[in-house]
Amino acid sequence: MATAPRKTWQQDPQRRTIILRATLETIALHGVDGTTYRKIAQCAAIPLGSVTYYFPSMQALLLEAFSTLAHDAFTAFAATLNRAQDKMQARQAIVEIIFGEVTAGDKTNQLSYELYSYACRTPVMKQVMKNWMNQSRASLERHFSPLAAVALDALIEGMILHRSVIPVAQEDVYRMVVQLSEL
Known about the structure:
Pfam families: TetR_N (PF00440)
Keywords: DNA-binding
Domain HTH tetR-type: 13-73
Number of strands: 0
CATH architecture of the largest domain: Orthogonal Bundle
Radius of gyration: 20 Å
InterPro entries: Homeodomain-like_sf (IPR009057), HTH-type_TetR-like_transc_reg (IPR050109), HTH_TetR (IPR001647)
DNA-binding region: 36-55
Distance between the termini: 83 Å
CATH topology of the largest domain: Tetracycline Repressor, domain 2
Structural class: mainly alpha
Largest sheet: none
Number of helices: 9
CATH superfamily of the largest domain: Tetracycline Repressor, domain 2
Number of domains: 2
CATH class of the largest domain: Mainly Alpha
């Protein structure tokens, strides 16, 4: 008599990534304060126990999710700037960053607002933000002075937030970039 093969449990190798993506989706919908393990599990369509297995504390989960967001945003930022061969192209790259796909959309804006707010209240998250800003400025310094890099980084962040509320013309932003890039 043949017996059926015994089923064994197999871990989903993408489970951690799925949880992190679902966490960001949940934060975008409900904010940090409204994000719970249960909502994340529901968004990821996985058992609640899987979320707590991979992330025993909500702070660890939020830290890793926001760190992933910061890493992904910086990677896109750096890739856009790295394509620039000279100062003029770098200026245009900054405008592309401000108006590009990576920084557009309600979800991206909501996550940015939540990230800044959470970083203000969470010391370990401030370090993630500081690292992100230092990396961004270092990328900008490949084309501009350190002072200009600080000003341009602030312009980029500010314009992205402003654009979520008030339309701004690309030509106007380019003129701002040119002025600040001369510092």
